[in-house]
C-alpha cells in the first residue's frame, strides 16, 4: 500500500496526512539506515489504520473522557506521573528529546519618547507633535524625542530543563526582556546585541512558533467559552513534531517487541490525531490549570458576564500550553490568582520543563516562598540592568557579600525586590561596623561580574554554542502549525460561531432596516407617485438615492465589530496562529448570506409599494445592485476599522473618506470641479447611483417624451442630475462595485497584515526615586477626625436566577445560590483579611455589603453600628476600592485625588485643609513622584512586593485611625498576611470556614486547622496563608471526607462570632442612627463645578478626540470649499441652488455624524466611571450630565467657527454680517445637537456598539426627512 493511499484511509483525520518523508522522520533516527523500507511503510500503514478505526468508534468521546479521568485525578500529583511515564517510554527506545538553550549577549534596548509634561497628550501637545513630526520627516527639524534606555547591556543564558524566575519592580524592563527573548519586540525600538537559540540567530528559524510569549494582558473573545478558546488555539498551533516522533517510537517499540502502557499509548495517539488532538490536549490543560469547572462558561468581557479575572489569567496561560512551543516566556501570569493556584500552575510547568527538556522564564510579582523554591535560576532586574542571574541557592550569598541579609520569616522574593530600592534598602544592612550608603543597581551589577556565579556565566558566554549539537526538531522552521486550507476552515468555523453568538446584533439590524423600509415605503407611496414631468422624476431620484445610502450605511456597524476584535486578532496573528487572509476571508464570505437577508428585507418591502418599474427583471437587477452596494460598503467599513484601529480615529477619518466618496458621487454636486474629477471617477457612490438610476429610468414607463422635451423623460431626468442615461451603465456599475468589493476586502486583509495595535499615549516621567529615610519609620496620621462604625451581617444569602446554560446541563432549581448563609462582623481598628480560592465569593460578599449589587436576591440582615443599613447614608461613610481600576484615564494622579476629596469630604472642610489631606495621602501611598502622571486606561499591572508593602502600610495606618477596613488578598507574603488582625476565610461555593483572629505568627489560625484530623502540620518558615489554602481545598475535603464549613459551624469559634454579632447588633448607649442633612456631601452647584472641572482636564488631554476632531473639521471644510468653490455666486439655475444646498447637506450629514460617532467611545468610558462614583454617593446624574454637556460647548464652538469661516469664504456666500452670523449660529447648534445625540445614545443603550446602531438608525431617519432627498411638499 502506498503512502498516498494511507492518506485516503485517514482522510483528514491525522494532521496533514502522514507526510512520512525523510526530512520529517529522520530527525528522530540516529542511524544512517534507509528509514522507508517496505516493511516500515507497512507497519506505519497498520498504525494509521488502527488510528483511523479508533476515531470512528462511536464511544471515542467517552473513551477520551474516561482516559483523562483515569490519568488525571489530582492535577498536581498525576501530571508528574503521566510525564514520567511518557519520558520513560521515550527513553526506553533511545529517542532523544529536543531542548533549547537561549542566549542573549550585550542586549541594549532604547526607545524614543517625549519626557515629562511634553508626553501628556494635551490638545496643544498633539498639534505641536503633529506639525513637528511632519517637519522632522522632511528633515527641516531635528527629532525632539529623547532616548529612553529600557535595557542596558544585559547578557545571560537560559538553560533547558531549568525553571528561571524573572524578578524586578514594575518598569525595570522585565516585559521588554521577555519580548526580546521571544523575538516579539516592537520594530520601533532601537536594539543592539543578539539573541540566539542553540546558537542559531532569530532569522534562521521561526521564533514565534519555537517559543511562546504569554502576555500579562488577558485578551480573549468574550463570546467564546473557555474550552472553545483553548481548542481554537490548539487546532491552530497543531501537533508540531509530535506525530513524527510517535511514528518512530512505535516503529522502535515494535522492533524491540516492547508493549507500552495502554493508557499512555492511547493518550499519545489521540494527542497526535487531528480534531481529537485539540480535544484531548485541551481537556488535559483544562484539568491542569483548574479550568475544568468553568470549561463551558463564556470568557466574558465588560458587557458579558463570564469567568473571574484569575480564571482569565489561567486561560491566557492555557492558550499557549496547548501548543507545541518548546520555550515559554511568561509575563506576570499570577496576577489575580491566589497563592495555592499559582503554586499549582508553576509546579505543573516545572514538571513539564524538567521531565520533557523544556525551557521556561517566568516573571512573577509576588511569588510566595514555596513558589519561589520551585525555580532553579533567578534573574533579578533593576534600573535597566541585570543585578543577578544564576542558581537560586547562591543569590542570598551574593547579597550577603554586599552587606545585605534577608531576615527570618521574610520571603526571599520580597527581599530581592526591595533590596535594590533606595527607600527600602537600609533596613537589610547588616554590617553594623560600617556606615551604610545606598548601593545602586549599577554597583550591584558590577559586583556580580566578579562574584563566582557571574564569572562562571561569563566563561560560558565566551564559549559559543555549537550549532551541530542542536536537535533537528528543536527549532521550528515552518511559519504555521497546520496547512493553509485547515487554517481557513478553523477561522471560518470560529467566525460562524461568533456570528451565532452575536445574532442579537444582526436581528437588531434587520429590525431597524424593516422599520426604515416601512417608513420609506409610506413616504414614497405609489398612489402618490406619478411620472408626468421632471419634478416627478426628482422624487424617484430621491427614493432611489436613499435606497443606496440606506443599504450602504447599514453596514457601518462593521467598524465597531471589527475594532472590537482587533486586540485578540493582533495577539493571535503575532503568535502565528493564522495568516491575516485566513481571518479576513471568513469575515467577508460568511456575511454574504446576511447581506441577502438585509437587502431582501429592504427591496421586497419597498420596491412595489413605492411604485418602481414592475418588471421582474428590473426588480432582480435592483436587488443585485443593492447587494453589491451592501457588500462594497461592508468591505469599506471593515477596511476603515482595520486602518483606524480605534473607534475615534476610525470614525473620524472613515467619515472623511466617506465624505469624499459621497460629495464626489455626482448626486450632491452635479458638476464636479476639474481638480476633483479623480474623486468622481473613483467614487463607488457614483457607479451605484448611476446604475440604480439607469435601471429604473430606462424602463417602459419612462420612455414617453416630457412636455417641452426632446428625449424620453427617464433619460432627461438622469441627464439633469449629471449622470449617464445609457443602459450599459448599469453593467458598468455592477462591474465597478464587484471590483470595489474585492479591492476593499483585499485592503482589509493588507491592513490586518501590516498594521499593529494602536498604543495609548503614556507619560514618561524622568523623576527618580527620592530618599525618604527621614521619618520613614514615623507613624503618620490623618488630619481629619473620623467616627468609628462596625458592620455586622448575619445569615446573608445571595442568589441569582439560574443561568440558562446551567438549566441546559440539568440544573432544576430556579435560583443559583452564590452566598450560603454567611455571617461575620468587621470592627473599627481591626484589619480583616478576606480570603479564599477563586470562586469562593469574596468579591460577591463585598458587593453585597457595599450595596453594589443591582440584580439578584439578597436575604439576611446587615447592620451599621447596630442600626439597619441604609444605602443612602452608608454610601456617604464608606469607600469601596474595587479590584478593577476604574478611573478617568486623562486626569493626573493628583487631580484624581483632589476630585475625589472634593466630592467625598464634608462641605465644611475648606479647600486648604482638603489639599493638605490629599498631599498627606499621596505621601502615605508614595505617589508623590507620580503626581503629574496620567492615571491611564484600565490595566492589569499587579503589585510587586514593595508596592504591596506600601499599600499595607497605608491600610494599617488607616485602620489605626479607628476606621473599619476589610481587604481581599490573593497571594500575600508572610509579613503582609500577618499584618492583618483577623481572617475571614471562604471556600468555593460561598461559605465561610474560618472567621477569627490570626494571632502572633498566625498561631490561632494554625491551631484551629491543625486540630482537625488529617490536616498536615505546617512546616517551619512556611507561609501560613499558603498552607491554609492548600489544607482547605475541595480535593482535601474529598480526601478527608469532611466539609470545612460544617466543621466551622460546630466550632467554638462560630459560637463566639455569633455572640459578637449579637453584641454589635445592639446600638451603643448614647449613639444614634446615621443621618445627614443632604444626600450628598457637597451642595448641588459644587457638584456640578467639580464634574465640569474633571471633564475639562479629561477633554484637554484626550487629543485623539478633541484634536483629531478639530483637524477633521478643517480638512472637511477645505474639501467642501474646494468641491463647491464659488458656487454661492451662481444662483441663476435650479441645479446651482441645488448644488449650494448639497454643500450644506454634506456638511450636516458628515460633520454631524462624525461628531455623534466620535463622542460614543469617550462617553462609554466615562459612563463606567459615573456608575462607580454615583454608587459611592459622590453625585447624582444631573451634575455629571452638566459637566459632560458644558465641556462640549467650547470645543464645538471652535469647530463651528473654523468650519464656518473656511466654507463661507470658499463657497462665496453673500457677505453680510447678518447672514454670516446666522450661518455660524446654525452650524454651531447643528453640531451641538448631533454631539448631544451621541451622548444620549450611549446613555440609553447597554454598550457602545448598540449605541452606534441605534444612533445611525435615527440618523438615517433624519436624513430621509431633511428636505434634501425628498422635497418638503412631498414629505408633508
From TrEMBL:
It is found in: Membrane. Residues 762-771 have a biased composition (Basic and acidic residues). Pfam families: ABC2_membrane (PF01061), ABC_tran (PF00005), ABC_trans_N (PF14510), PDR_assoc (PF08370). The chain crosses the membrane at residues 504-525, 537-553, 588-610, 622-640, 646-663, 675-694, 728-755, 1107-1125, 1145-1165, 1185-1208, 1220-1239, 1251-1270. Residues 135-408 form the ABC transporter domain. The keyword ATP-binding applies. One of its GO terms (molecular function) is ABC-type transporter activity. Belongs to the ABC transporter superfamily. ABCG family. PDR (TC 3.A.1.205) subfamily. This is Pleiotropic drug resistance protein 1. It comes from Nicotiana attenuata (Coyote tobacco).
Amino acid at each position: 500500500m502506498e503512502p498516498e493511499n494511507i492518506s485516503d484511509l485517514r482522510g483528514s483525520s491525522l494532521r496533514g496526512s502522514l507526510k512520512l518523508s525523510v526530512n520529517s522522520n529522520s530527525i528522530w533516527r540516529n542511524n544512517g539506515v534507509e528509514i522507508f523500507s517496505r516493511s516500515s511503510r507497512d507497519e506505519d500503514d497498520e498504525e494509521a489504520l488502527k488510528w483511523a478505526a479508533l476515531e470512528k468508534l462511536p464511544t471515542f468521546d467517552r473513551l477520551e473522557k474516561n482516559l483523562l479521568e483515569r490519568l488525571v485525578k489530582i492535577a498536581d500529583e498525576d501530571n508528574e506521573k503521566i510525564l514520567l511515564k511518557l519520558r520513560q517510554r521515550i527513553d526506553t527506545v533511545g529517542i532523544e528529546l529536543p531542548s533549547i538553550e537561549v542566549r542573549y549577549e550585550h542586549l541594549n534596548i532604547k526607545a524614543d519618547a517625549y519626557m515629562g509634561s511634553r508626553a501628556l497628550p494635551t490638545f496643544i501637545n498633539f498639534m505641536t507633535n503633529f506639525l513637528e513630526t511632519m517637519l522632522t520627516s522632511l528633515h527641516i527639524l531635528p527629532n525632539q524625542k529623547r532616548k529612553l534606555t529600557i535595557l542596558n547591556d544585559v547578557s545571560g543564558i537560559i538553560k533547558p530543563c531549568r525553571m528561571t524566575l524573572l524578578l524586578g519592580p514594575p518598569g525595570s524592563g522585565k516585559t521588554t526582556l521577555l519580548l526580546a527573548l521571544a523575538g516579539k519586540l516592537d520594530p520601533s525600538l532601537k536594539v543592539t546585541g543578539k539573541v540566539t537559540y542553540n546558537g542559531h540567530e532569530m532569522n534562521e528559524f521561526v521564533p514565534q512558533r519555537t517559543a511562546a510569549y504569554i502576555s500579562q494582558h488577558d485578551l480573549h473573545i468574550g463570546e467564546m467559552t473557555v474550552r472553545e478558546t483553548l481548542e481554537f488555539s490548539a487546532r491552530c498551533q497543531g501537533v508540531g513534531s509530535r506525530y513524527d516522533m510517535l511514528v518512530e517510537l512505535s516503529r522502535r517499540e515494535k522492533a524491540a517487541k516492547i508493549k507500552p502502557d495502554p493508557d499512555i499509548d492511547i493518550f499519545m495517539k489521540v494527542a497526535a490525531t487531528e480534531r481529537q488532538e485539540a480535544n484531548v490536549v485541551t481537556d488535559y490543560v483544562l484539568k491542569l490549570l483548574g479550568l475544568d469547572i468553568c470549561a463551558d462558561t463564556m470568557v466574558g468581557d465588560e458587557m458579558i458576564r463570564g469567568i473571574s479575572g484569575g480564571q482569565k489569567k489561567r486561560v491566557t496561560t492555557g492558550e499557549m500550553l496547548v501548543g507545541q512551543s518548546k520555550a515559554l516566556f511568561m509575563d506576570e501570569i499570577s496576577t489575580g490568582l491566589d497563592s495555592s493556584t499559582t503554586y499549582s500552575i508553576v509546579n505543573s510547568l516545572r514538571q513539564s520543563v524538567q521531565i520533557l527538556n523544556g525551557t521556561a522564564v517566568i516573571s512573577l510579582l509576588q511569588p510566595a516562598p514555596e513558589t519561589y523554591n520551585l525555580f532553579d535560576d533567578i534573574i533579578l532586574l533593576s534600573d535597566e540592568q541585570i543585578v543577578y542571574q544564576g542558581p537560586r541557592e547562591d543569590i542570598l550569598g551574593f547579597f550577603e557579600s554586599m552587606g545585605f541579609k534577608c531576615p527570618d520569616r521574610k520571603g526571599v522574593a520580597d527581599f530581592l525586590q526591595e533590596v535594590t530600592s533606595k527607600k527600602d534598602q537600609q533596613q537589610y544592612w547588616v554590617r553594623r561596623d560600617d556606615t551604610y550608603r545606598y548601593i545602586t543597581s549599577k554597583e550591584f551589577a558590577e559586583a556580580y561580574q566578579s562574584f563566582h556565579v557571574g564569572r562562571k556565566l561569563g566563561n560560558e558566554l565566551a564559549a559559543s554554542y555549537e550549532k551541530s549539537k542542536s536537535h533537528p526538531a528543536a527549532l521550528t522552521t515552518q511559519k504555521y502549525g497546520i496547512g493553509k486550507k485547515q487554517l481557513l476552515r478553523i477561522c471560518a468555523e470560529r467566525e460562524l460561531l461568533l456570528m451565532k453568538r452575536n445574532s442579537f446584533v444582526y436581528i437588531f439590524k434587520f429590525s431597524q432596516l424593516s422599520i426604515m423600509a416601512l417608513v420609506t415605503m409610506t413616504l414614497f407611496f405609489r398612489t402618490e407617485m406619478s411620472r408626468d414631468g421632471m419634478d416627478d422624476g426628482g422624487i424617484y431620484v430621491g427614493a432611489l438615492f436613499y435606497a443606496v445610502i440606506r443599504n450602504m450605511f447599514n453596514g457601518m456597524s462593521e467598524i465597531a465589530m471589527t475594532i472590537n476584535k482587533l486586540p485578540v486578532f493582533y495577539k493571535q496573528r503575532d503568535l502565528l496562529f493564522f495568516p491575516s487572509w485566513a481571518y479576513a476571508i471568513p469575515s467577508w464570505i460568511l456575511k454574504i448570506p446576511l447581506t441577502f437577508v438585509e437587502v431582501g428585507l429592504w427591496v421586497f418591502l419597498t420596491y412595489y409599494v413605492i411604485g418602481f418599474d414592475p418588471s421582474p427583471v428590473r426588480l432582480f437587477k435592483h436587488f443585485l445592485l443593492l447587494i453589491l452596494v451592501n457588500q462594497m460598503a461592508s468591505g469599506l467599513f471593515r477596511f476603515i476599522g482595520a486602518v483606524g484601529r480605534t473607534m475615534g480615529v476610525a470614525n473620524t477619518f472613515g467619515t472623511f473618506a466617506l465624505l469624499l466618496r459621497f460629495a464626489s458621487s455626482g448626486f450632491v454636486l452635479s458638476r464636479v470641479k476639474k481638480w476633483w474629477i479623480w474623486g468622481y471617477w473613483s467614487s463607488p457612490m457614483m457607479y451605484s447611483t448611476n446604475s440604480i438610476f439607469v435601471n429604473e429610468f430606462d424602463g417602459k414607463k419612462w420612455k414617453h417624451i416630457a412636455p417641452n422635451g426632446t428625449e424620453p423623460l427617464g433619460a432627461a431626468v438622469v441627464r439633469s442630475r449629471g449622470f449617464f442615461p445609457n443602459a450599459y451603465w448599469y453593467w458598468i456599475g455592477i462591474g465597478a462595485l464587484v471590483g470595489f468589493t474585492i479591492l476593499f476586502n483585499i485592503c482589509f486583509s493588507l491592513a490586518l497584515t501590516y498594521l499593529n495595535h494602536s498604543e495609548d499615549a503614556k507619560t514618561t516621567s524622568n523623576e527618580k526615586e527620592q530618599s525618604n529615610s527621614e521619618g520613614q519609620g514615623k507613624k503618620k496620621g490623618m488630619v481629619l477626625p473620623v467616627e468609628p462604625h462596625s458592620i455586622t451581617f448575619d445569615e446573608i444569602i445571595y442568589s441569582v436566577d439560574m443561568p440558562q446554560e446551567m438549566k441546559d446541563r440539568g440544573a432544576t432549581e430556579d435560583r443559583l445560590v452564590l452566598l450560603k448563609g454567611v455571617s461575620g462582623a468587621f470592627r473599627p481598628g481591626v484589619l480583616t483579611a478576606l480570603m479564599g480560592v477563586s470562586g469562593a465569593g469574596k468579591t460577591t460578599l463585598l458587593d453585597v455589603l457595599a450595596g453594589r449589587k443591582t440584580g439578584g436576591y439578597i436575604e439576611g440582615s446587615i447592620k451599621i453600628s447596630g442600626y439597619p443599613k441604609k444605602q443612602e447614608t452608608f454610601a456617604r461613610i464608606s469607600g469601596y476600592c474595587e479590584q478593577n481600576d476604574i478611573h478617568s484615564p486623562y486626569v493626573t494622579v493628583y487631580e484624581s485625588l483632589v476630585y475625589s476629596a472634593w466630592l467625598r469630604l464634608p462641605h465644611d472642610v475648606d479647600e486648604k485643609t482638603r489639599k493638605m489631606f490629599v498631599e498627606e495621602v499621596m505621601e502615605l501611598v508614595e505617589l508623590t513622584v507620580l503626581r503629574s502622571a496620567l492615571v491611564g486606561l484600565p490595566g492589569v499591572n499587579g503589585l510587586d512586593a514593595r508596592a504591596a508593602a506600601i499599600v499595607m502600610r497605608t491600610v494599617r495606618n488607616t485602620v489605626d485611625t479607628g476606621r473599619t477596613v476589610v481587604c481581599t488578598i490573593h497571594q500575600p507574603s508572610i509579613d503582609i498576611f500577618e499584618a492583618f488582625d483577623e481572617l475571614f476565610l471562604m471556600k468555593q461555593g460561598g461559605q465561610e470556614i474560618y472567621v477569627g483572629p490570626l494571632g502572633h505568627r498566625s498561631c490561632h489560625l494554625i491551631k484551629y486547622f491543625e486540630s482537625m484530623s488529617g490536616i498536615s502540620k505546617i512546616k517551619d518558615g512556611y507561609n501560613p496563608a499558603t498552607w491554609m489554602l492548600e489544607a482547605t481545598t475541595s480535593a482535601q475535603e474529598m480526601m478527608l471526607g469532611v466539609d470545612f464549613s460544617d466543621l466551622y459551624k460546630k466550632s467554638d469559634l462560630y459560637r463566639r462570632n455569633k455572640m459578637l454579632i449579637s453584641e454589635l447588633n445592639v446600638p451603643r448607649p448614647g449613639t444614634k442612627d446615621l443621618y445627614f442633612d443632604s444626600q450628598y456631601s457637597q451642595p448641588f452647584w459644587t457638584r456640578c463645578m467639580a464634574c465640569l472641572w474633571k471633564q475639562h482636564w479629561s477633554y484637554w488631554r484626550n487629543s485623539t478626540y478633541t484634536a483629531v476632531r478639530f483637524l477633521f473639521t478643517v480638512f472637511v471644510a477645505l474639501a467642501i470649499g474646494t468641491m463647491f468653490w464659488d458656487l454661492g455666486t451662481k444662483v441663476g439655475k435650479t441645479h446651482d441652488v441645488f448644488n449650494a444646498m448639497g454643500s450644506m447637506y454634506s456638511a450636516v450629514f458628515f460633520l454631524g455624524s462624525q461628531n455623534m460617532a466620535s463622542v460614543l467611545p469617550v462617553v462609554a468610558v466615562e459612563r463606567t466611571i459615573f456608575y462607580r462614583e454615583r454608587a459611592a454617593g459622590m453625585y447624582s446624574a444631573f451634575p455629571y450630565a452638566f459637566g459632560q454637556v458644558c465641556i462640549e460647548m467650547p470645543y464645538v464652538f471652535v469647530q463651528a467657527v473654523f468650519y464656518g469661516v473656511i466654507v463661507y469664504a470658499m463657497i462665496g456666500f453673500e457677505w453680510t454680517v447678518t447672514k454670516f452670523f446666522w450661518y455660524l449660529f446654525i452650524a454651531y447648534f447643528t453640531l451641538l445637537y448631533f454631539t448631544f445625540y451621541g451622548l444620549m445614545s450611549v446613555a440609553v443603550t447597554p454598550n457602545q456598539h448598540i449605541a452606534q446602531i441605534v444612533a445611525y438608525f435615527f440618523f438615517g431617519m433624519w436624513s430621509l426627512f431633511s428636505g434634501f432627498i425628498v422635497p418638503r411638499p412631498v414629505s408633508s
